Amino acid sequence: MRKKSTFLELKETERRKRRELILEAATHLFSTRSFSEIGMRDIAEEAGISPASIYRYFPSRDAILLEVLGQDINEGRLIQLKRLEEGANSLEEFAIGIVDFFFDKEATLHMLAHFLLNENMDEQILNQFKLNQKFFLEHFANLLENIGISIDNIQEFAEVFFASILGIIIAFKNIPEQDRDKAKKDIYERIKFTCKVAEKALKNM
Length: 205
Fold this sequence. Notes:
Layout: H1 2-32, H2 40-47, H3 51-54, H4 61-85, H5 91-104, H6 106-117, H7 123-146, H8 154-172, H9 180-203
């Protein structure tokens, strides 16, 4: 009986490692090319497995995208927690941290937009994305509470505030004939203004 259990454990370990290889390959491809140009065959080739084999681990490219996105967003969550521990506890510092994250993780921004805007997505994948989104926004609200924001409708505020930051990044990140540093500086200014408006509104709540 023990031998059978050991064999199953080895098979599960192998399966887990192959999933990790696929996700690493996808992450690399998404960071170097537009993910709209990347298919399952490309990811399989990057991971060193056959195109047929990849479907044993993920049913579609969107399933891979979703898992990579989840890992990236969790990384962002941990970065924000570390920033809080280091004393970055103002609303403005909190928002600037989100801008810095998405500037460093441009592929993550594109993946997030893909799931937010794509109307022709598999229902199961879309439902999973919504669950992940709900979890992230609940955590986002908790982080806001940690920097001293205490209002009854903190969840609604978190959702609106995050949407505002994300909208500013998307709207002003790729302005023609503007370099990356200038775009980031301009976004910082708009974020600071947004934070001032938010802080003023919070005082009246």
